[in-house]
Amino acid sequence: MADGIDDIGAADAANAENKSEGKHGLVFSPASSDAPAPGAPSPRKRGHGVFRSIRFNVWTIFMLMTVFVLGIVWIFEIIFYSTFYVGFQRNDISKLGDEFTNGYLAGLRADADEDTLRTFVSEFVSENSVNVMVFNLDDYGEVKPESVISATVSGVQATDISEGIFDYYIENLGYETPLVADTTSLENVEESLVIYGYRTSVYDSDVGISNMLYIYMSSELPSFVSARNTLAGQLVVITVACLIVATVVAFFGSAAAAKPMRDLANRVTEKRSGKRKPLPTKTKFSEINELSTAFNYAFDEAEKNNRFRRDLLANVSHDMKTPLTMIRAYSEMIRDISGGNREKSAKQAQIIIDETERLTALINEVVELSKLESGVMQLNVTSFDLSARVTETVKRFGIMEEAKGYKFEADIEPDLVVRGDGEKTDRVVYNLIGNAINYTGADRRVVVRCRRKDGCARVEVSDTGKGMTEEELHTVWDKYYRLAQDKRRVVGSGLGLSIVKSILELHKARFGVESEKYVGSTFWFELPLSPDNQT
Fold this sequence. Notes:
The chain is α+β, with helices and mostly antiparallel strands. It has 13 helices and 14 strands. It has helices spanning 30-34, 54-79, 81-109, 114-128, 163-172, 224-269, 286-336, 342-374, 386-395, 398-404, 422-439, 470-475, 496-506; strands at 12-13, 23-28, 131-135, 149-151, 179-182, 193-204, 209-220, 382-385, 407-412, 417-420, 445-453, 456-463, 510-516, 520-528. A seven-stranded mixed beta sheet has the order 1-2-13-14-12-11-9. Strands 4-3-7-6-5 form a five-stranded antiparallel beta sheet, covered by helices on one side. Strands 8-10 form a two-stranded antiparallel ribbon. α7 (286-336) runs antiparallel to α8, α9 (386-395) packs across α11 (422-439) and α11 (422-439) runs antiparallel to α13 (496-506). The longest helix is centred in the middle third of the chain and has 51 residues, at 286-336. The protein is elongated. It starts with 11 loop residues before the first strand and ends in a 7-residue tail after the last strand.
């Protein structure tokens, strides 16, 4: 069939079994019409300058990650390490205290003598490097010197506990509830210790009464100030070394990451002799493959647009040249040959008028198509009676029946009210009928149908021409496309179906074409029925 537009990549083809000679179909849906063609790249902004380069950004991210990790190390080692260290020491002395308490009380329950208990205490202190003191209190709350069993790391026998620690110990110690604490926050206590305490009642068989037994254990906390200073010095060296290594690695790593992009940019911008070679799309980087695919698509589209531009200029120039030549020729004939013959002059003037109208129609269609494709033309959507408008459009071709013997068969269901732009819909129907007139068979029959289908009104325009191949179903929508197989003179600008497609896509309508070789073709479109007309 006849005229068309370039972009058919978004169409969904519905083909019949016979690929070359049988029946074929092509359907355009709103979803596919709006979506970009397969492989079309999404628009993206490109940045300029070194600070927006991939290499600089990769380097910056790597360095920020390094600084972040080092910052976490500094925070935990310098700020929180003292807290963690004291916590670890308290946990250790709690385990040792429970172990010692259980062993000592087991010895008392076994009626161990004092020497056995002293030996147990001494061995425990020697093995675990802690200070231990077991004692009773007198009636005044003071330590009974004669009750003390102790051992220290230094080997000196302890007989008392420093006043500040003792007061804290007695005040916070519960009955048979272990006390675990450190002296770093105690006032008037210069020693840095972690302490363990336990209190329980022990029956003394010699006097027949129970005495309160106290267990005290301590372990020295090393000076954290010197340890922190040493740690800080080490961290400074580690930090400087890490930053130097990170800078070098990030510099060369970012260069390696950006190299495929630079290579791709060079391939895109380099001048090529002859036909453009497609960019490689099977590199080891998937992002580069996607970008190359996008560039290949863009290049193909640019070449396609350039080809259509050249074809458009050539065809428009040719179509404008013919009527202009005829206008000039008949104008000269009126001037030089008619010789005052009014009948001959009128006939030649009518030819001039006809060719002028043909030229005007060509220019109007080019302008209309340009507006549609540029998005300047907007729809005036209303509810209108599609049945009535199709009927009126068919009547406009009545002169073709009288003058040239065409037969128009209309099968139109009445009162089909749809939503859309009525005037532009008239244009679609008019172009489809004009297209059918150009390519119908020897019987010159054109069939127009308008029926209800699945909540829509479907308009079909059929001819009895030679039909199309599957390939022609796509190219028929191209600008200035005319079937080479049809040898008779085709009337029109070659833009009719291209305008049809643009208008229907603007409506987001479903449309398509079905064709069978040597039987004919049917172009169709569907518009949604108005809500009041759904039943």
